């Protein structure tokens, strides 16, 4: 079974930085894309950034120039470096990965438990 374990969330002042990490583990045959999403109460879960296995990135307009997504394929880890944080970045951040297990013929979406990021003004 696959697990995604997140770390790095917390409380930071406006203008500060945080670095989120997400490690995938289990009987993994291959990992395709990985990404970060965020959600606040009363709103849908929105894409923040994604990265393919080849390193191609995609960002939401609201975070371009401030956030950077990266991955370490050997360690099965995806990162989100968040700089110049704003109060509107406050949300629960979720890690996502598209993974095929050794025991499966299919690629499935897996999600982390979510980590709270709070930016104070």
Attribute tags:
mainly beta, 121 residues, four-stranded antiparallel β-sheet, 11 strands, 0% helix
Outline the structure in words:
It is a single chain. With 121 residues, this protein is an all-beta fold. It is built from no helices and eleven strands. It has strands at 3-7, 10-13, 18-25, 28-39, 46-51, 57-59, 67-72, 77-82, 91-101, 107-111, 115-120. Strands 2, 4, 5, 6, 9, 10 and 11 form a seven-stranded mixed β-sheet that branches. It has a four-stranded antiparallel β-sheet with strand order 1-3-8-7, with no helix packed on it. A hairpin with a 4-residue loop joins β7 and β8. The radius of gyration is 14 Å and the shape is elongated. It starts with a strand and ends with a strand. 27% of the residues are buried.
Helix content: under 10%
C-alpha geometry: elongated
Number of strands: 11
Mean pLDDT: 97
List low-confidence stretches. Answer: none
Q: Provide the structure class.
A: mainly beta
In this structure, how is the largest beta sheet organized?
7 strands, mixed
**H-E order:** EEEEEEEEEEE
As a whole number of angstroms, the C-alpha radius of gyration is 14 Å
Strand fraction band? over 45%
Number of helices: 0
State the end-to-end CA separation. Answer: 41 Å
List the helices and strands and how they pair.
Elements: E1 3-7, E2 10-13, E3 18-25, E4 28-39, E5 46-51, E6 57-59, E7 67-72, E8 77-82, E9 91-101, E10 107-111, E11 115-120
Parallel strand pairs: 2-11
Antiparallel strand pairs: 1-3, 3-8, 4-5, 4-9, 5-6, 7-8, 9-10, 9-11
